[in-house]
Amino acid sequence: MILVQRQSTLHAVAVFAGVELHGGNHTRIALRPAPINTGICFVRTDIKDRDNKIYLHPSVVTGVTNCSTICNGDDVCVSTVEHLLAALAAAGIDNLYIDVDGLELPALDGSSEPFLKLIEKTGLKKQNAPRQYIKVLRPITVTRGESRGTIEPADRLILDVTIDFDDKAIGRQSFVIEPDVRAFRERLASARTFARKHEIAALRAAGLSKGGSLDNAVVVDGDRVLNPGGLRFADEFVRHKALDLMGDLYMAGPILGKVTTFKGGHGLNHDLLLALITDKTAWRYTSIHEIIQDEARIRA
């Protein structure tokens, strides 16, 4: 992860449109440049009768079942935000308005790659304000059933993810990455969300995955991958879990720390982030200037 000194936004407006993975509706989003210290702000453009803005923060996460959902105090929500957030994290975008005309972001191909490509094509604009990083000061560990997550001090963001499924097509996989924009582009961005065939009927009965298809998800049936084109990576499943983790962590902004998860998901990711942020002794804000000063003192 290449640390940058100044905040960034987009150089111009970038527009996406497509079908929601879970809701099945067609939605359109527009990423708009925002001033310094705005943060990431989702704007529900289809809502006019109450506050339609949701400023990104771990405290606004209200749902972690099969995707990450955020809501404001007026019960205005946006779901499946993690794939876009992963792309914003990799690109280093701090300030942005995200106009959404529905409840859920479009699935596109089920990965972050379409988001990243258009963000890079649009270009970034450096802003005249220092970028603030969350520096992890001591380890935090959480568990959720068989799942376990730890975040500990490091001078970069490092993701160490392990999954373990009974399905032979998935099995046990591990993946480690320091996700700067190049590593994210080459190793993570195109990894797609996945589902097991036996789960799909239950998901749809629960009102989820209405827009899911082989065009925007990898579907597994025991030892078989049902997508005609197969996998993009032999370990695409764990790579997508790492992508989800990166997006979920960006709810708090850029983090300097090593994050290790076992059998994780959105629930564990949120539990870990919330445990960190609510413990004021476990982290502090820092900037590149402060990091350089700290390194100089250590060398002296």
What's this entry about, in short?
This protein is an alpha+beta fold.
Count up the helices. 7
- Unreliable residue runs: none
**Envelope shape:** globular
CATH names the topology as lpxc deacetylase, domain 1
Q: What's the gyration radius in Å?
A: 19 Å
- Written as H for each helix and E for each strand, in order along the chain, the element string is EEEEEEEEHEHEEEEEEHEHEEHEHEH
Supply the CATH architecture.
2-Layer Sandwich
Structural class: alpha+beta
Write out key terms for the chains shown.
300 residues; alpha+beta; lpxc deacetylase, domain 1; seven-stranded mixed sheet; five-stranded mixed sheet; 7 helices; 20 strands
Write the layout of secondary structure elements.
Elements: E1 6-10, E2 14-19, E3 26-33, E4 40-44, E5 53-55, E6 61-63, E7 69-71, E8 77-79, H1 82-91, E9 96-100, H2 113-122, E10 124-130, E11 133-136, E12 140-144, E13 147-152, E14 157-164, E15 172-177, H3 181-187, E16 194-196, H4 197-205, E17 218-221, E18 224-225, H5 236-249, E19 255-262, H6 266-278, E20 283-286, H7 288-299
Parallel strand pairs: 4-9, 11-19, 14-19, 16-17
Antiparallel strand pairs: 1-10, 2-3, 3-9, 4-5, 6-7, 7-8, 11-20, 12-13, 13-19, 14-15, 17-18
Helix pairs in contact: 1-2, 1-3, 1-5, 5-6
Describe this structure in words.
The chain is of the alpha+beta class. It has one domain: lpxc deacetylase, domain 2 (lpxc deacetylase, domain 1). It has 7 helices and 20 strands. It has helices at 82-91, 113-122, 181-187, 197-205, 236-249, 266-278, 288-299, and strands at 6-10, 14-19, 26-33, 40-44, 53-55, 61-63, 69-71, 77-79, 96-100, 124-130, 133-136, 140-144, 147-152, 157-164, 172-177, 194-196, 218-221, 224-225, 255-262, 283-286. Strands 11, 12, 13, 14, 15, 19 and 20 form a 7-stranded mixed beta sheet that branches. A 5-stranded mixed beta sheet has the order 2-3-9-4-5, covered by helices on one side. The radius of gyration is 19 Å and the shape is globular. It starts with 5 loop residues before the first strand and ends with a helix. The model has no long low-confidence stretch (mean pLDDT 94).
